[in-house]
Design goal:
By secondary structure, the chain is mainly beta. It has helices at about 55-65, 105-110; strands at about 5-15, 20, 25-35, 45-55, 70-85, 90-105. The chain has 2 helices and 6 strands; from the N terminus they run ββββαββα. The two termini are about 35 Å apart.
């Protein structure tokens, strides 16, 4: 039987992310984002707060470029965990394991924000559209 576990979320960071390391030196960053659910006319919007964990270079990227209130896009998978706490109670957690994180806003859109978020500037010049060579006949094309 086939299965699929893919999550794509766009929301806002609820707090500044904090980069930590495991005892083996692997970078990890746990945080949550607020995601507003769609609603019909006349209803109040509702926000879900979703726990996310990112590892290694993804964790470093998030900790470096995102702050509380920053819009972020997360692609990853849903994971559940169980453990027994110090009092002997069985605990459960459901979280998204982030495989990818990306910017949602442009730098100019986040300028008016009161937080310290600043997306990196990419000063790549826009070049002309590529020039393509026309092919006289379709006989040699494989499709």
């Amino acid at each position: 039987m086939a299965s699929l576990n893919k999550v794509i979320l766009i929301g806002h960071m609820t707090a500044d992310p904090e980069l930590k390391q495991t005892t083996n030196g692997v970078n990890v960053c746990s945080f949550s984002i607020g995601v507003t659910r769609k609603y019909t006319r006349g209803e109040q919007s509702q926000t879900d707060f979703i726990n996310i964990v990112a590892w290694r270079t993804t964790a470093e990227f998030i900790a470096r470029y995102f702050r509380k209130g920053s819009a972020i896009c997360i692609c990853g998978s849903l994971q559940t965990r169980t453990w027994t706490d110090n009092n002997g109670n069985k605990r459960y957690a459901t979280e998204v394991v982030a495989d990818e994180a990306s910017f949602v806003e442009r730098k100019s859109e986040s300028v008016g924000r009161t937080d310290s978020y600043s997306a990196p500037a990419f000063n790549t010049p826009i070049s002309e559209a590529p020039k393509f060579e026309e092919i006289a006949g379709d006989d040699d094309l494989p499709f």
